[in-house]
Amino acid sequence: MKLPERGTSQEEVLERMRERKAADADWEGGRTWSLVYPAGEEVDEMLRAANELYLFENALNPFRFPSLRTMEDEVCAMTANLLHAPDSFGGAMTSGGTESILMAVKAARDRAVAEKGIENPQALVPYSAHPAFAKACKYLGLEHVQIPLDDDRRADVSAAAKLIGDRTALVVGSAPNYPFGVIDPIPELAALAAERGINFHTDACLGGFLLPFLEDLGEDIPPFDFRVPGVMTISADVHKYGYCTKGASVITHREKAQLHEYQLFVYDAWPGGMYGSFAMAGARPAAPIAAAWSIMNFLGREGYQKLARVIRETTDTLRSGIEAIPELSIWADPVMGVFSFGSEKIDIMAVCDVMDERGWHLDRQTGPDALHMMVSPGHAKVVDAFLADLRRAALHHGTSKGAEARYS
């Protein structure tokens, strides 16, 4: 395709976009179980207004747009408070969980090089951790060492203790991990790191904006945040269970000094003046910062608790419904609305093919084979229809065409 010689009318451009969008997954109807986190029309309206208000600004220069600097600082402070950070904390916003993780790995690497002189640093990362850690290690020159999992799908602490060594710059735990929705043994892993003066990072990209409110509702949440000694950094995505539009995440440091010393990039050896950035990106869209600030203030703690209650109730209904299907099993014991299920009796990928045909969008996993679900408030309206279709799919799992060829 070439750039058109002449412009096209706004209506024609929009119509062509609408036609293409019609083929996308129906997240508004609750048919998707990942990627988008619908929380209701009132939330959507707040987000539209905030995005529109800051559609054109650039968050690169806080001196030109001080309102953005103030909102980013306040988003970071509210997030740090949720995660029980000390007064000495430091934080910055990024474009998403991957960038937050990249910055956490960078900070750990730079600290290990500066304070210990480590030349070939490595990161100890659970097998179930997000691929962003492998990406960060690839980009930043660390060896990516995987910690095997226990039978409960959590990082094996005894295995981690054998793997940690003089070259270790970072130890990681997930709260929860994406594949199974369980929280790694954060206190034990963080203690291994703290004993050796190594950074420990809790990846709470999924749980950072849901686990605190489930705890408010009386749920027994395993320790994962800054209340755990040794946890040095935490990533938490506002655009997941914080219900912000993409892309908004927060990376929080226990000590502000480490944020400035090991995450901040500053450069002035060029004619353009002082350049500084806390993230990988230079120019940054303002809208995600504004949207994050707006939705956190719009919902408040009470609003997040209300949405957490809906997710808990919907998740309980889903889990009970899945466990009532004899052929299916939920892997591990997930702590929130993220989990996977599979089968030791039938072909779960064939089941997924049937669900695909019925218009549901479930992510496929391997090791073991499973279907993955991330429950949002918008799923409350479709849970009964989903379970009815899943029961039929499990009953007729052998009727799907092409499953064996695609997954053999």
| Average pLDDT over all residues | 92
Strand residue percentage: 5-15%
- Extended strand count: 13
Sequence stretches where pLDDT stays below 50 over 5 or more residues? 398-408
Radius of gyration: 22 Å
Q: Class by helix and strand content?
A: alpha/beta
Measured as a percent range, the helix fraction is: 40-55%
CATH architecture type of one domain: 3-Layer(aba) Sandwich
CA-based shape: globular
- The N- and C-terminal alpha carbons lie at a distance of 37 Å
Number of helices in the DSSP assignment: 13
The spatial strand order of the largest sheet comes to 1-7-6-5-4-2-3
- CATH homologous group name of one domain: Type I PLP-dependent aspartate aminotransferase-like (Major domain)
List SSEs in N-to-C order.
HHHEHEHEHEHEHEEHEEHEEHEEHH
What does this entry look like structurally?
The structure is a single chain. By secondary structure, this protein is of the alpha/beta class. The protein has a domain at 47-296: Aspartate Aminotransferase, domain 2. The chain is built from 13 helices and 13 strands. It has helices spanning 10-21, 41-53, 66-82, 97-116, 132-140, 157-163, 186-195, 211-216, 256-263, 287-323, 348-357, 383-395, 403-407; strands at 90-94, 122-126, 143-147, 168-174, 199-203, 231-237, 249-253, 265-267, 275-277, 329-330, 338-342, 363-365, 370-374. Strands 1-7-6-5-4-2-3 form a seven-stranded mixed sheet, sandwiched between helices. A four-stranded antiparallel sheet has the order 10-11-13-12. The protein has a two-stranded antiparallel ribbon with strand order 8-9. Strand 12 and strand 13 form a beta hairpin. Helix 4 crosses helix 5 (132-140) and helix 10 (287-323) packs across helix 12. The radius of gyration is 22 Å and the shape is globular.
